[in-house]
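Please predict the structure of the following assembly.
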Amino acid sequence: MTASTPRTSRNGAVGNPAASAADPASQPPAQDARATATQPPDSAEPPSPPGGRSTKRRPGKRTGLRILNAVSIVGGITIWWALAVSGFEFPTPPEVVETAIELWNDGILQEDVVASLTRVLAGFIAGSAVAIPVGFLMGWYTVARGLFEPWIQFFRTIPPLALLPVVLVLMGIGELPKVFVIFLAAFLACVISTYQGVVNVDRTLINAARVLGARNGTIFLRVVVPASTPFILVGMRVGLGSAWATLVAAELLAAQAGLGYRMQQAQYYYDTATIFVGIVVIGVLGLVMDRLLLFADTKLTGWQERR
Amino acid sequence: MTTTPTDTAKISVRRVRKTFDLKNSEFVALESVSLDIADNEFVTVVGPSGCGKSTLMNILAGLETPTSGHAVVDGKDVRGPGPERGVIFQQYALFPWLTVRKNIEFGLKVAGLRAAERRQRAEYFIHMVGLDQFADALPKMLSGGMKQRCAIARAYAVNPSILLMDEPFGALDALTRVTLQEQLLGTWSREKRTVMFITHDVDEAVFLANRVVVMAARPGRIYDIVDVDLPFPRTEEVRLSPEFGELRNRVWHSVYHQTPGVAAGHASS
Ligand SMILES: Nc1ncnc2c1ncn2[C@@H]1O[C@H](COP(=O)(O)OP(=O)(O)OP(=O)(O)O)[C@@H](O)[C@H]1O
Ligand SMILES: [Mg+2]
């Protein structure tokens, strides 16, 4: 994948978690000089388990990869198990499963999952819903860009979590402050990406629409919006990752329920099994949500020419 | 300067000058370009890279405005793009998220045609360029030549009276190129349009044209105009005829052995 464009480096704030979380988004699909179609934002895919994009490969290679995946997972669990029995403070895999079942039977696990998911989805959906129009405005109107850009550039250099103390002071200790920092995390990732998408729309496509008689409104709806969809979806995926990370951290700091809260509590009692349950559930939920967005991505942006 | 603009011309470029502002100087892309193109005429434009061919076309398309002078189409000054001037870009410029059919229907939709009517018209032009089997394919599934045929159909579909083509076959291999040239002429003879066709290929310029306009660079200007009085239809026979060869040599000489500072007035009259 082609390296980031000059525009990216202008926006790129280096050396902090917020910026690196949003970094993949600021790598626009490379514009091949010879192709009109935007290239797939493959590079923008957040790290995912091997085999994620292997669907286009030959079937033989695919099953080969799957086998390797399985071997890797089994191997990893075996090492974990071996470490646990050889004296580390680890729970063994069966202990973790047992604890998970216990937590489930007590209704605690469901409660935590619902609490966490509600927060993350509320923040993420609100964040994306605000980010997409703002990103479009910034890309389309110079005035909007001039007004929004300094603030977005400033806030994206701050990990949303760093704002939690002040948000807690201002918003109290209810759900609002947590949802708000998640909102911020999702918003910042998605807004930059949407903006990049609009700015990167191929000029010739806009000109092609103009010479076919299209006016600004039509160009916006029928050219700019579809052309930036790949960028928006990348932004949403990065935003979701960022939201999820922020959620767990926020719950570790200030919550009465949720997966992060549960792990925090377990830490007091050296209850490593519960902590492991939390880690695994967080990982699985994050993965499932990412796969759902990836699925939407392939459905909505299948028109892209892939290299 | 040489060609006196007349009111009967379909396209009339009158002393057009176009400059671009560079850091601390101004770059003259076109200097005093005047050219008349008659209704249904097929004019090709050749010239070295950077001589302002695309700039001239963009001015006629309404995508750029001249610094001074006028671009007149049908007796009216060009102000912005319009569907009566179809443009075919070198890079195809198909909307990659739309199928061939939807691409061709785009301009019709913009014009407010109803679905049934759009479909019928699109069908006709899909057939005209021989993409029937690919009507519902996305551009990514088409070869370069098919993409360009789709772009031609899309431009034709809105029924423009003028077609402006900027090196439309530039990215294609020689064989596809020749096939498309013949198809384009076939289409043009059935559906007469005024065409301005930019190319950097001298053979292509002569083969297609009623008239070849040779441009020169620094500043961008018209250097020579060569009338091509070869018969239509242009067949392989025409392409291999000595007359074709002569015209080709003449244009070749004009393009590749340009005397600095000479403009059309001195070269051709
Ligand atoms: N927007 C612009 N800003 C500055 N200079 C420009 C701009 N557009 C074109 N030019 C300059 O004007 C000159 C003519 O450009 P143009 O694209 O019309 O050339 P061309 O004849 O089409 O060349 P080619 O055969 O390579 O396509 C070039 O030197 C180019 O650098
Ligand atoms: Mg050009």
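Chain B has two domains: 1-84+162-269, 97-159. The first strand of chain B starts at residue 11 and ends at 21.
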